[in-house]
Design a protein that fits this description.
By secondary structure, the chain is an all-beta fold. Helix content is 0%, strand content 57%.
């Protein structure tokens, strides 16, 4: 079992920046994919960004050029640097860990962007 601990959410004005952090612990395999998804009120959860253990990244079209996902030196930590934030980026951001078809999820951190 994998546990995920997220931090870094908050309230920011449009155009501002936030950095989210997520640390995985427990039964972690060296080959994995970690990422961030978000859920806005009344909407389905959507993938924001992901990164493989080899460093390959994937982004939602809506955040390309503004968000950057990266891994820490310990490889069990993932960061999401969010720049040029927009009100439509508001939501609960969930860290996730995937090994083969098995997902683990964090409890989420709130990001609110005011206009």
């Amino acid at each position: 079992q994998v546990q995920l601990a997220e931090s870094g959410g908050g309230l920011v004005q449009a155009g501002g920046s936030l950095r989210l952090s997520c640390t995985a612990s427990g039964n972690i395999f060296s080959v994995n994919t970690m990422g961030w998804s978000r859920q806005a009120p009344g909407k389905q959860r959507e993938l924001v960004a992901s990164i493989t253990s080899g460093g390959g990244t994937n982004y939602a079209d809506s955040v390309k050029g503004r968000f950057t996902i990266s891994r820490g030196n310990a490889r069990n930590t993932v960061y999401l640097q969010m720049n040029s934030l927009k009100p439509e980026d508001t939501g609960v951001y969930y860290c996730n860990y995937r090994f083969t078809a098995t997902y683990s999820w964090g409890q989420g951190t709130q990001v609110t962007v005011s206009s």
